Amino acid sequence: MKVLTILLALLFTAPAASVYEFKLTNIDGKPFSLAKYKGKKLLIVNTASECGFTPQYAELQKLADQYKGKVTVVGFPANNFGGQEPGANAEIKTFCQKNYGVNFPLSEKVSVKGDDISPLFQYLTTAENPDFTGEVKWNFEKFLIDENGKLIHRYRSAVKPLSPEITKELE
Questions:
Q1: Which residue range or ranges hold the Thioredoxin domain (predicted)?
Q2: Is 2 inside a domain boundary?
């Protein structure tokens, strides 16, 4: 009977209406919610410490500083591409702070694709937006969320954080 109840709950649970509905864990192992950022835009980025795009951490921090009050950058370390994020959460945090001065929020390490994809990234990769849907292709893909928690733009890895494509949405 319990299994049937669980299956029915899964079948009849409404899909998430916004990113504010997801329960997350930060890099320090503490629960956090994106709902605390209601009224601001969010730039959600899957990150990695040993990737050719890793220097984007510096631009992400500049963006977070330059547009403070308008957007919050949130990094989600992931090891889905070429083993480029092998470290534990504490190592990732230290690396980001020491090498790039990162002080924007970081999640615990998550999976952004595959069978173990985090529910947040399952939502982000299937949510309607004017750009594209589908699985994350590489590290440092960016998801721009509006003040109501809806995905409004998605950018591939090569789009730099301070590029006009992103900053025009923050002006």
A1: 13-171
A2: no
User: What total number of domains does the chain contain?
Assistant: 1
Is residue 91 one of the residues assigned to a domain? yes
Does residue 12 belong to any structural domain of this protein? Answer: no
Q: Is residue 9 part of a domain?
A: no
**pLDDT for the residue 3:** 53
CATH number of the domain residue 26 falls in: 3.40.30.10
Residue 46: which residues within 8 A CB-CB, separation 6 or more? 75, 76, 77, 78, 80, 110, 112, 121, 136, 139, 140, 141
Tokens representing residue 110 in the block: 């998550």
Secondary structure in 3-state letters for 15-54? CCCCHHHCEEEECCCCEEEHHHHCCCEEEEEEECCCCCCC
Contact between 18 and 148 (Cβ < 8 Å): yes
Domain encompassing residue 25:
17-167
Distance between CA atoms of residues 171 and 61, nearest Å: 17
Which of 16, 51, 58, 162 is the catalytic position?
51
110-144: per-residue pLDDT in tens?
999 999 999 999 999 999 888 889 999 999 999 99
Degrees, nearest 5: CA angle 7-111-123: 55
| Residue 51 falls in the annotated catalytic set | yes
